[in-house]
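Q: What does the assembled structure look like for these inputs?
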Amino acid sequence: TTTTTTTITTTTTTTTTAVLHIQYSTQQKSMCVSVQEGSEDERKHTKLLEAISSLGGRRRMKQTERSEASLQVSEFSVAADGAGEKVELSDLLGTMEKTPGAPNKTKKQLKNLQNRKDTLELPLSKQETEKIQRGVAYKKSSREVSRWESVITQNQKAEQLVFPLRQDPTGHKRMEQVVAGWKARTPLEQEIFSLLHSNSQPIHDPVLTPVEEASIKAMSLEEAKIRRAELQKARALQSYYEAKARRETRSRANCEYHRVQKKAKRRDFLKQFEEMVKTDPDAALEELKRMELSRMQERMTLKHQNSGKWAKAKAIMAKYDHSARKAMQEQLEINKDLTQKLAVPSEDEDEEKNGDEEAGALPDFVNDPEPILDPVNPWMRGKLSKEEPEPEEEEEEEEEENEEEKLLREFERKRKLREDEDDDLVPVPQEEENQSKSLNISSLQNDKVDEDDKDEEEEEEEEEEAEEVVSEFNSLFNRLMKSNTTPAVPDQNEGEELLDEGLVRVQTMEDLEALRKDRTNEANQEASVPATDTPTAPESASEPPNKKKRRRKEIDLKKVLTKQATVVKVPLAPTVLEEEEEEEEVHTEQAAIIKEAFAGDDVISDFLKDKRKQEEAGRPKVVDLTLPGWGEWGGLGLKPSKNKRRKFRKKVAPPPPRQDKKLPAVIISEKRDASVAAHQVSQLPFPFQNPTQFESCVRTPIGQTWNTQTTVRKLTAPRVVTKMGAIIEPMSREDLVPKQKSNEAKRGAAILLEEKRERGKKKGSGGKRALQQKKKKMQKQKKTKE
Amino acid sequence: MKVKVLCRNPDDYVRETTRDIQRVPRNYDPTLHPFEVPREYTRALNATKLERVFAKPFVASLDGHRDGVNCIAKHSKSLSTVLSGACDGEVKLWNLSKRECLRSVQAHEGFVRGICSRFCGSSFFTVGDDKTIKQWKMGPPGYGLKEEPLNTILGKAVFTGIDHHQSEGTFATCGQTVDIWDELRSSPIRSFSWGVDSFSCVRYNPVETELLASCASDRSIILYDMRESTPLKKVIMKLKSNTLCWNPMEAYYFTCSSEDYNLYTYDMRCLDSPVRVHMDHVSAVLDVDYSPTGKEFVSASFDKTIRIFPKDGGHSREVYHTKRMQHVICVKWSADNKYILSGSDEMNIRLWKANASEKLGVLTAREKAALHYNQKLRDKFQHHPQVRRIARHRHLPRGIFRQKRELKEIKEAQTRKEQNVRKHSKPGSVPLVTEREKHVVTVVE
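A:
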């Protein structure tokens, strides 16, 4: 027993897990007691048990009984205590420390957590939380309400509002809409409906698909019309551009070849010339002289001025014929090139084109004698400024050359091909030169003629090329010359015209006038100087006189004012005696200024004049009411008799004396009529901003007497229209939505339109294909012509 | 080729019927029609005179109640049906076109405090002094059946007002708290209280249908959102406001009728000061209702008059009164914008025209055109003194007239005093306070 007690004492100190052991040991013990000893031991044992239980304190042991079968049975065939109990976190943490597998870090963290002593913050008081909630809710709802702002302002501004806001669309309803609101009520109807349903027949057969419906909604008649007009326009434009493109391609094939060839020749020539300069300077000089000569000749003659017979004939044709126009322009170009001393023909194709246009636009300018150019003036230098980046261009040219060679080769090849084709095909003679030819001429003859033509053409070309070469040389020569002359001339005239600085100080009117005289003389001198030195010189010559004129208008008092100026004396008490002299000077100056300023201001006499004028205006006038021809003979040269005139001249009774009759210094307006004033508006009413606005508003009549029926209807439309007997519902959220809906509908329509467009494009592309085929045909025809 | 032919089309000169006026070709050359302004002016003057001559707004009086009419409600679907509750607990249904009582129900013991019809128009709700909310069928009971409510809810305290949601089965009552009820439940789904013990009026916003506003006895107006658990905001004014009404076309404006003889229009997004102060009444304003177009509102006052105010005008455009009409307790503007109903102390409901000189009934096209033209002329020349004098002239009973004059004097004296105080005190110490700012004490969040 002693051993058992010791075990018990040891176990009681341990935790609840030891309880099982105790139970076990006690049972064992009781068994052995019953066997070995008597009732005394039993009593002792119970005491002991009590003592043990008292040791446990609150944790009173519960006698666990196993009354029914359970899953949780311990190995000692006793129901496990606390099996269904909740596991608390503290229990687990306790075991954590013991387990060796747990990392130290987590252990530390847990310890820290346990050691922390700071508490959580108190929650906000109920009042405060509610206040916050209220604030948030209010913001939210006011934001929500603000959605209506646009609708409300729109309604406020609306010319007319029709209530109720949501009205059913007038006009006929479609079948489905009518049917939708109808229900089968009678048994017969219901039967029919059920039958229909069983056969899955559509009840409301939609006439239109949703897409079609959307398109109908989206495309009103007007929109459709607009759309159609747009499409028509687009089609017209397309056809126009196609025709243009066709024309261009036709003409370009010829032009481009010649142009490229010309360019190549020119380049060759230039190269040759440069070589010549290096190798044989004398020859080069001669060449230059020749060029100079050609230029002089050109300037003297009228060769390329489109004044010859050919040019006149072409000029008549030019209106209708594109090629004729071009030829004329080329002529002018040549002329320009030859005559212009400093200008260099541009080398880019685009610039050439521009040059063509310019030549067409400014032929007269070209023929004018060349003005003496000013090196400073960029406007008078022609195209020189463009030529600074030369070396780079040369490099580019080399590259271009290759390209051009390629192009040339291509052209050659094409030509050959064409010629071959020509050989094969029977040509259709249409040109003037070939008119005499009959159809049965042999191909050989044909070739010959062609060759002749070619020869002619070539000759022409050669001529042109020679001229061009000459012009090219001109340009080159000019460049050479320019290199000597170009050093910048010092800016002598800069700043001369900006400010008129001098020693004279202008303070009074007299000074100004004196100054003006001087300046006019100067200006005259300047004007007499020919506009040679600067481009700005003519501007300077022209500007100052203008200014003077203006000044004259402003100031010339003597011409305007015929009256003697009354002198106003301003008493000026000197404040400082020491500086009397200076003061006096100032005073005299001031007096002069004041005198000038108020010169001619005779206020009193003006006032009196005004008054007299008003009095005269107020005086009644004699009214002549004689009608010629009444009661006597009338006609040309006959005047009504004196007697009659006297009879019909009415004198109006004099008005009551003026209110300001006895007040010499006052004018009282007589316009105010007391009887009318009662009907007049004394103050400007609120929405108007000025009296004229209000007056114009009142002056426009709105009645039928002055306006047509429709305008009257528009003008007198009431602000608010209500329908009799209709309940006006308050605005609902649906009133916000429709806009979006309509937008969606529009979008749908747009999509539909796009689809159509795409289809159209496909068609168009098909059309393009057809056009290409057509083009090919045309080309073939052309080839045959050639 | 265009061929020009002389033609005479009878349509141009033959009238359609013998009743029609002769067609006259007109020449609109302005030189032929001189003096357009004076001629139109005389026309305008005549139009205003005629308007005043024809201004007979009183249409009918509906009598039958045995005590003062305490509340009126419009039927939400029928223009001709009107409900009214009296101080003896009786509710009457009226047919306006026949001007007769269709049905009368002893709904409550004591006052019928509030009445409103359901949005579908099939039933109506009443609240009374007996702490009950009752729902009634709009139609009469079957033959031999007693008048019994569809539904009765017993509350804990007296209900002072009721309003129904615009499109849902919920309604709001006010009493000691503002409660939101579901029609199918016997207890409120939400109840708001914010340090106030009694409310006099609660109204749903007809546009933003989840918003509510109520007038409390602590001189405040409180805004609510049905979806939130707390009220939104409240503004405390100098004097208590009796009722309020939301503008049915402009979601954020409401107007409240105050004990200080004025009405105040507020923008609910900015409660710091009212948008407009409407003054003309000479006694406490008891009820207010907006016209369905949202352009005007009508107010009923303890001074025995009804006044119509433009929504953005400081003064009334019209005042209605009759000799027999006593303190007007409730007023409603009919849903077709044509009539005004007023219930007053002396047991009568009166029907007025909203536009005093309007001709009732169907108008011919020419009549209509003439009316429109006259209206336009009056508008055009409204600033001219003679026209204005005639157009603005109204008759007032002597009592009200005297009171008005007295009030005017008081006001003048006050302003004079204020000016004097300002004059004799340190500059800047007596700030200028606008009329709008004067009446608001604080805004509580």
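The beta strands of chain A are 161-163, 623-624, 649-650, 720-722.
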